[in-house]
Amino acid sequence: MTHAPVSTSLPVLDMSMLDGDEASAHAFRDALRAATHDVGFFYLVGHGIPDDVTTRAFATAEQFFALPAEDKQGVEMLRSPHFRGYTRTGGELTGGQVDWREQIDIGAERDRVDDPGAPAYMRLEGPNLWPTALPGLRAVFADWEQRCTAVARRLMQSWALSLGSPADVFDDTFGDRPSTLIKLVRYPGREDRGQGVGAHNDPGVLTLLMIEPGKGGLQVEHDGAWIEAPAVPGAFVVNIGELMEFATDGYLKATMHRVVSPPPGETRLSIPFFFNPALDSTVPRIELPSELADQARGVTQDPHNVISGTFGDNLLKARLRAHPHVAAVHHPDLLRSSP
Ligand SMILES: O=C(O)CCC(=O)C(=O)O
Ligand SMILES: [Fe+2]
């Protein structure tokens, strides 16, 4: 993988500054706070995940998408009440419009919850669907999950300190049951360069996105315009989700983003990792120092997208909206009760 420079207007943060002296760690935290207050997106280098690990992740994703359709359909999300598994191109909606991408969703591997009295969002917990035709996939992404979780936990501690709170202020929210989710995504090319994935905010806390080297297509909203966020080799694109906006009364910003389809004859792979709290936990509302509280904008109020601080509620809302076919098969009762 080459590390040729890519021109970008998003900030680039170097996480290895946390390994330096206190002044260097402090400078990293200030840059982290500034980036996620202003734009809500940045590139992260110096995160310590070696290039060969990233290369293996993309190669494995490529092998998965190259499997015969029957093998991918064998793990279709339509078979999973927990919204795990494969979604064919056109099977997902964002903003009520069809997304042009195929993907497999791999969440934290857990037993299903059989208690009928449990809140509806506990239906999201359960086993993944693993493709028997590609047995190596599971170990590659178990490793990816561990590595990304370690990076994410360090970032959460840095945010906590940068907001004037103890380093561990978010720890209980994640506990030992974070709701991690990895997606392997492939965007086919098409003439109209239309919706790969439509404009959205991520519903959780933190997203670490790895984009196939050399590929553009991701666009980030800033001051009413879209800015391009092309792949920077070896760097994660990092953004925060609605729960960080909730936790900071809008001081930090969940930013809208979308992916435009690649041109005909090309494809684009991406691997987003979502680091999210336990389903039944509510993120704390951080008490900001007054100079930051003065700049808090309040949590976005959108009647079509009510932000709940309880992660399970916020995720269930997003899952039912994005995967109505899965919802219709497994959760018709929830569709009837939604407004
Ligand atoms: O594929 C990408 O680059 C972004 C995907 C994304 O925003 C998402 O799945 O939430
Ligand atoms: Fe996203």
Automatic annotation (TrEMBL):
Residues 177-277 form the Fe2OG dioxygenase domain. Pathway: Antibiotic biosynthesis. Keywords: Antibiotic biosynthesis, Iron, Metal-binding, Oxidoreductase. It holds the Pfam family 2OG-FeII_Oxy. The keyword Hydrolase does not apply. Belongs to the iron/ascorbate-dependent oxidoreductase family. This is 2-oxoglutarate and iron-dependent oxygenase domain-containing protein.
